[in-house]
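Running this now, will post back.
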Amino acid sequence: MAGAGDEGRLDTTGPEDVSGGAGAGGDPGERDGRGRRRRRRRRKKGGGAGGLPPAAPSDKPESAGGGDSQEPEAAWDLETFVVPEKPGLMRFHDIELPVGIMHAIAALGFEYCTPIQAAALPVALAGRDVFGRAQTGTGKTAAFLVAMLTRLLRNPLEGRRRKGTPRALILGPTRELVMQIHADALALGAYLPLRVLSVYGGMDYNRQEQALKAGPVDILVATPGRLLDFKRHRVVELAEVDCLVIDEADRMLDMGFLPDVSNIIRSTLPRERRHTMLFSATLTPEVRRLASQWTREPVHVDIEPTQVAVDTVEPVTYIVRDDEKFTVLVNLIRKRGLTRVLVFCNRRDQTARICDHLQAHGMVAEQISGDVPQKTRVRTLSRFREGDVRVLVATDVAARGIHVEGISHVVNFDLPENPEDYVHRIGRTGRAGERGTSVSFASETDAFYVEPIEAFIGRPLPRSFPDQDELLEPLPPPLRPLAEKARRGAGGPGRRPGGGRGGAGGSRGHSAGGFGRRGR
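Update: finished.
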């Protein structure tokens, strides 16, 4: 799959920095130590197959410590990292990366580049601007991080540097994505004397400010709003940024960040003196126009979304009524023994209702959406990653940056209104060469989204009715009363307000909050 690549390819989609750490103003050594212990536990459990595996042995140096206690590169010999040549695959050896980066790649267990890495890295390392069209799961994060780290190492700054003045800047639209990129930068920069920080809303402003004032910053990963807050208060100075990455540019535009992003870019070095890499899932005219404004004759790298969408993910679409969706969801998870499921909804209020109904039926479920405080979202993602949460219910925006190993099933409780979001959603499973399943519910309120999705991915979505005896078996009564908010929901999580069928009961089985059953 072009998305995650074959086994042994580098796709930095691993454990998120959930401890605050340097990005939130905490102690980077303390955070990295806890992260290593979690990664070692996952490795002992057989983790690491999907996305970024447990990153390094316990004696690796801290990557956010400013280089005070770095292990000499001579302690690791590149000749010990042997990767055979394979037809059609590019090795990381083939692009002459610094030894410290190769050390991290070897520790992460990767050998060959994914398609976007093979296409983007050579031109980026040559100093050319890059405009990449790539979906989630293609390995693009590693592509721009490796290029950025290499540039910093090959062009060291002389003399004393000011605090809060980064050399390289990465912009992401959501907190989760920023946290993920930060964690990936720490993993790839584990053996380098570089300091990486991240700033984003929803976390302690003062702690992030203290981290920025603690010393020079090499790489800063940020959401636009929080970065501008620090810029207005003169905590951050962007005049020395000579390497810029804008990730998920299309999502930036969708979320209304264009004025903020433009303000930030104007504060960096001119494009003639700046290396710029821009990544987007689509090539809309507006994204193309922005790319031409912010870059210098960029090299275009395209990874077709159809490759990402279908190679390792089996699509299943069930034709259901709105009031049958929850019954099918619960029976699917229970009867097929699913242990790590990601459920997508289109609305924040619906994520809360579905989560409450799942909990009432005895499942360990949590939700993340814009209504959930950031600290709670961080803890929830950590528990989901560790296997303590069986079902995670999420909205599209809140789920940006979720990279969790071993998600076997992604469920589209609601089909997305934007076909591109379908590809982003199912890209959370079937990663790193593993197989995954995407289950979609097509009901009377969202079935008309199927054809645009099929046109976008270039393939039909197989459709069928759920099995009457297995997936439509009436559910037993919930184990506890529903929350007041869920009870007040119009028709329960399976219906939109004011529409559909169902009620508070049924002739057979149980129907809570408007969940119904197929008529006989």
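The longest helix spans residues 28-44. More later if anyone needs it.
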